[in-house]
Design a protein that fits this description.
The complex is a heterotrimer of chains A (238), B (236) and C (263). Chain A is an alpha+beta fold and 238 residues long. Helix content of chain A is 27%, strand content 29%. Chain A has one domain: GHMP Kinase, N-terminal domain (Ribosomal Protein S5, domain 2, 2-Layer Sandwich). In chain A, helix 1 links the parallel strand 4 and strand 5. The termini of chain A are far apart. With 236 residues, chain B is α+β, with helices and mostly antiparallel strands. Chain B folds into 3 domains: 63 residues, RNA polymerase II/Efflux pump adaptor protein, barrel-sandwich hybrid domain (OB fold (Dihydrolipoamide Acetyltransferase, E2P), Beta Barrel), CATH 2.40.50; 75 residues, Beta Barrel (OB fold (Dihydrolipoamide Acetyltransferase, E2P)); 67 residues, K Homology domain, type 1 (Ribosomal Protein S8, Chain: A, domain 1). In chain B, the strands form 4 sheets. Chain B has a 5-stranded mixed β-barrel with strand order 8-9-10-12-11. In chain B, strands 1-6-7-3 form a 4-stranded mixed beta sheet, with no helix packed on it. Chain B has a 3-stranded antiparallel beta sheet with strand order 2-5-4, with no helix packed on it. In chain B, helix 3 runs antiparallel to helix 4. Chain C is an alpha+beta fold and 263 residues long. In chain C, the strands form 3 sheets. In chain C, strands 1, 2, 3, 4, 5 and 6 form a 6-stranded mixed beta sheet that branches. A 4-stranded antiparallel beta sheet of chain C has the order 10-9-11-12. A two-stranded antiparallel ribbon of chain C has the order 7-8. The termini of chain C are far apart. Classes of the chains: A alpha+beta (238), B alpha+beta (236), C alpha+beta (263). Chains in contact: A-B, A-C, B-C. Chains A and B meet through strand 3, helix 2 and helix 4 of A and helix 4 of B.
Chain lengths: 238, 236, 263
């Protein structure tokens, strides 16, 4: 979190740079079947974020050493396309992507009934085509829809959303400027049917009251996002 | 779940859910993973449904089906999971001196031991009997606890497939392909003058004149498209 | 998974279809799949395009960087073209460093664009010997159902033609379109069942033999050729597809012009 004071992200009326109020999330649209050759796929547009998730499997896990005798492994890859950001991203190994892939896999493993497919592997590919803050949240959410679309049994889908703080004001669903110049970011992965959590990160600086406020914004956003996920799945392929 | 009220952007006022959750005409049939399907005391959990803490919950996306005291979900897509006595079409992927490894479209490959093969081979002659890349019609003999399976070619009609083409569909659509009492499949055979055998793993063998095969394949694709539309209650 | 298994039945079936002058999806020998071209579809790229050919879907995005010109060419900017086929695009594509297949894809597309001279690299120079624009074209596959070459080449030239130099962001003057004077277009032919067909899908690629990629510029000038995969072909076979390529490239070029003109 930077903390550069020269960009005014919220005006005196509480209106943000993209015209939203502090407790408003960016527009969302989700469609399924966007990768025709995959077993399941979803595209999520969330603000300017454009994320594609594809699922392959369950299939035989190679190499053998990654096989688990009692369950399937989720092989998750989060990646940003070279043209997804203002400055081009060089393809190849990247510590940030590795970490996000790991926490995403662990969040999704908490809901996928992996014990039904011992020794196999389910590949989940998350590609960020266009990025505008909150790509990991959009990635987890899109991957949940893609898994459901692929017919992979799961006890619930994961809804992921981040709230944070800019100029000492807590706001829901950070955009790019707020992410760059804000003081805190709290991404969470929540199960819409139980309110339980499977993913949690935070960085920055929040007072106990602000933390509670950001937490409550995330919880409040779940049903809004979940409706879109369910509608995309039930609406079928375009 | 408690939470702070979150405002919706204008484009999300709820009328863009194309045939989605609020449409009472067809919606109740379609479920998403995690959806609550009622008390587990009243019904038992069938395919795609689990009982958790006294409630039934969908674990797959698809169409809800209530029949004979059981709630199940007919999924949009299924991966083939082998069961004993399934008739399947497989490809030879590799071999040792007395075992063939068969791709049957399941998460795990099957093995075909020489003793269950079409004929005995001399030592070193296994590829003369069935070579890598050959297609076979076989039956699942047993499925082990860890999901590996053994297939056999001993039985009526089981053999190597040397002509025609093999198409693939999702296993759960086989019922639609075959139809009540095998009517649809019979009709397809008559119209295209082709021989058709549908394996339980979703692979369909088509053999006949080239024009017939092309026609059969097109019909198969039409059927899959229809199934897709029907699944979503005509809104796809 | 590695190298996919080629069912013998598939090869035999494709040969049988070829004898009857038929294709497995009912297309004519030189008929392409349904084609969609969308331009300027990526918010963060300075130029972009999305191409869909049947179930093959690719994106192309253009980014710019400031570079120091190479010492032997102090008055020239740079053009770089790279293709990435990540595992998202299909079961057969694996993670890890770029495979020889994706490197070939990027290089063949690169040659077609570079050799056509459609970009004047001297115009990219800002201060001779010190500062110049580098154009970076990234080709990215989302769904591979065969013929990524043609999809990449079309998306690539479309993205370049729509690209705008972000001079304002770098505080070196006003934004201006990247001048792309010519329109090189690629057509690929795959030998399936013993004869060349246009726009092979994954199944035809799997059961086929060699492929030939032809990039033609304006006025039918040839800018790049590539023969890939195992196989032998005759001069007569090549002549036949070259004639086809001329009309097909012209067709694609006019489609592209139409799209760029906003229909």
């Amino acid at each position: 979190m930077g903390g550069y004071g020269d960009v005014q992200c919220i005006d005196e009326n509480g209106i943000r740079l993209d015209g939203r109020t502090v407790g408003e999330i960016r527009p969302i649209s989700i469609e399924v079947g966007v990768v025709p050759v995959a077993d399941g796929s979803a595209r999520m547009r969330w603000g300017l974020n454009d994320v594609i998730a594809a699922v392959y499997g369950p299939m035989e896990a190679h190499p053998r050493k990654i096989q688990r005798q009692d369950r399937a492994v989720l092989d998750v890859r989060y990646n940003m396309a070279p043209f997804s950001t203002t400055d081009r991203i060089r393809p190849g190994f990247n510590r940030r992507s590795r970490e996000i892939s790991k926490v995403t896999a662990e969040a999704l493993e908490s809901v996928v009934l992996t014990e039904l497919y011992p020794r196999s592997k389910i590949r989940v590919e998350i590609e960020i085509i266009c990025a505008e803050a909150g790509t990991r949240c959009a990635g987890i959410t899109a991957a949940s829809v893609a898994l459901a679309h692929a017919g992979i049994p799961m006890s619930d889908m994961v809804v992921s959303v981040a709230s944070g703080k800019v100029h000492d004001i807590v706001v829901c669903d950070l955009n790019k400027e707020e992410d760059n110049y804000g003081e805190a970011d709290l991404p969470m992965g929540i199960l819409p049917n139980s309110g339980e959590l499977v993913f949690l990160q935070m960085d920055g600086d929040l007072s106990p009251e602000q933390f509670q406020e950001a937490w409550d914004y995330n919880m409040g956003a779940v049903s809004v996002i979940h409706e879109h996920m369910v509608a995309a799945l039930k609406g079928g392929e375009a | 779940m408690k939470g702070r009220q979150v405002a919706r952007p204008d484009n999300m006022s709820g009328d863009n859910t194309a045939g989605g959750p609020r449409d009472s005409q067809q919606a109740p049939l379609l479920v998403a993973p995690g959806e609550d399907l009622g008390d587990s005391g009243e019904y038992s959990a069938g395919h795609g449904v689990v009982a958790m803490n006294g409630r039934l919950r969908a674990v797959k996306q698809g169409r809800k089906n209530t029949q004979d005291g059981t709630v199940s979900v007919e999924p949009r897509r299924t991966a083939y999971v082998p069961r004993p006595s399934d008739l399947v079409i497989g490809y030879i992927e590799g071999c040792t001196s007395n075992i063939w490894f068969i791709d049957i479209g399941a998460p795990f490959n099957a093995i075909l031991p020489m003793s269950l093969g079409p004929s005995k081979a001399e030592f070193g002659g296994i590829r003369k009997v069935l070579d890598i890349g050959d297609a076979i019609l076989c039956r699942v003999q047993e499925v082990e606890e860890n999901h590996s399976s053994v297939v056999t070619m001993k039985g009526m009609g089981l053999r190597a497939i040397r002509s025609g083409t093999v198409e693939e569909i999702d296993p759960h659509l086989l019922g639609r392909l075959i139809g009540r009492g095998g009517n649809n499949l019979r009709q397809l055979k008559e119209e295209t003058e082709c021989r058709l055998i549908a394996g339980d793993n979703g692979r369909v063998w088509i053999d006949g004149e080239v024009t017939g095969m092309v026609e059969a394949r097109a019909k198969l694709n039409d059927l899959l498209m229809e199934a897709k539309v029907a699944e979503y209650g005509g809104v796809a | 998974m590695g190298i996919p298994l080629v069912p013998k039945l598939l090869r035999a079936h494709l040969a049988e279809l070829a004898e009857n002058d038929s294709r497995h999806d009912g297309r004519g020998r030189f008929e392409g799949r349904d084609l969609e071209l969308e331009i300027d579809c990526l918010e963060r790229a300075e130029g972009s395009a999305r191409v869909r050919m049947g179930d093959t879907i690719v994106y192309a995005g253009v980014k710019f960087q400031i570079m120091t010109p190479y010492p032997d060419r102090p008055n020239e900017g740079g053009l770089m073209c790279s293709a990435e086929v990540r595992p998202v695009a299909g079961r057969g594509w694996e993670p890890g460093p770029p495979s020889p297949e994706s490197i070939e894809l990027g290089r063949v597309v690169d040659r077609g664009i570079r050799e056509s001279g459609c970009i004047n690299v001297e115009e990219l120079c800002l201060i001779p010997g010190e500062k110049a624009w580098q154009v970076i074209l990234d080709l990215f596959a989302i769904s591979d159902d065969g013929n990524l070459f043609d999809a990449f080449a079309l998306a690539g030239i479309a993205a370049l033609k729509s690209a705008v130099l972000p001079a304002e962001r770098y505080e070196i003057g006003e934004d201006r379109p990247l001048g792309v004077a010519k329109t090189p277009v690629m057509c690929s032919y795959h030998k399936v069942g013993g004869r060349f067909v246009y726009d092979a899908d994954k199944r035809e690629e799997l059961g086929g033999d060699e492929r030939i990629h032809i990039t033609l510029g304006d006025d039918d000038h040839v800018h790049s050729l590539q023969k890939g995969l195992k196989g032998i072909f005759t001069a007569a076979e090549f002549d036949e597809i070259m004639v086809e390529a001329r009309s097909k490239c012209a067709e694609l070029r006019s489609l592209l012009d139409q799209k760029l003109a906003g229909e």
